[in-house]
Amino acid sequence: MPRSKRRATTDMASNDEERYTSKRQRNTTSSRRSSRLEETSFSQKRCLAWFREYTTPDDPDSLGPEGMEKFCEDIGVEPENVVMLVLAYKMQARQMGFFTKEEWLKGLSEMQCDSIQKLQYRLDYLRCLLSDQNTFKAIYRYAYDFARDKDQRSMDMETAKAMLQLLLGKHWPLYTQFSQFLDQSKYKVINKDQWCNILEFSRTIYNDLSNYDVDGAWPVMLDEFVEWLKAARTKSEIS
């Protein structure tokens, strides 16, 4: 065979091999991409199987206190952490310490989470929701019905103080004084109107109380708190 013809044949074989190699690499890359997509895409079946890890055969459609404790341990969040309240809000859970199957699927489907790792990745997103004033207000209002005893129309004071500490303790400069006021007050429960107005008070009234209108439409509880705080401050100045 002439040398030039041999070279042409060799070049054709080399080109064929390069095209084959390139095609094989593309197929491998596509396969890997598809595999990664399968790993990251949400699966309701996988989400439900994850839920079943925390339920019992006697009640497979309800995650209770023991399951909740294990769930919190798995995702690395204390049960008392405010992010658990935000998660419950996303699920629109009705009762503190419990998630139903429907609530679990609603919240986690919306966040596209079907594993511990995916939910852990979304924890910062849940915390960030608290920084938005409108969302925080919605979570705060939700917390009242979520935490109260469903047999009672009002929230008992012990629960109310725990929830106020969780939601306002770090952000409201007057929270410590308000908590002290509640400790010595006659109030044993907090109703929903009082609950909602406490948030509004914390957002709008200055720490020195200079913009508090005694003729405003605040609940009597908050009028009494202002009187108590002014008296405490006067006493402190005198002594």
Secondary-structure blueprint:
Blueprint: H1 3-40, H2 44-52, E1 62-63, H3 65-75, H4 82-91, E2 99-100, H5 101-110, H6 116-128, H7 133-147, E3 155-156, H8 157-168, H9 175-184, E4 189-190, H10 192-204, H11 220-238
Antiparallel strand pairs: 1-2, 3-4
Helix pairs in contact: 2-5, 4-5, 7-8, 7-10
Domain DCUN1: 42-230
Protein name: Defective in cullin neddylation protein
GO biological process, one term: protein neddylation
What does this structure look like?
With about 240 residues, the protein is mainly alpha-helical. The protein has helices spanning about 5-40, 45-50, 65-75, 80-90, 100-110, 115-130, 135-145, 155-170, 175-185, 190-205, 220-239, and strands at about 60-65, 100, 155, 190. The strands form 2 sheets. Strands 1-2 form a two-stranded antiparallel sheet. Strands 3-4 form a two-stranded antiparallel ribbon. The protein is elongated. The termini are far apart.
Spell out the key features of this protein.
nucleus; Defective in cullin neddylation protein; PONY_dom; mainly alpha; 2 domains; two-stranded antiparallel sheet; cullin family protein binding; Recoverin, domain 1; ubiquitin-like protein binding; single chain; elongated; 239 residues
Summarize the structure.
The chain is mostly helical and 239 residues long. The protein is built from 11 helices and 4 strands; from the N terminus they run H-H-E-H-H-E-H-H-H-E-H-H-E-H-H.
Succession of helices and strands: HHEHHEHHHEHHEHH
Shape descriptor reads: elongated
Low-confidence segments: 1-14, 28-38
How many structurally independent domains? 2
Assigned CATH superfamily of the largest domain: EF-hand
> What strand line-up does the widest sheet have?
1-2
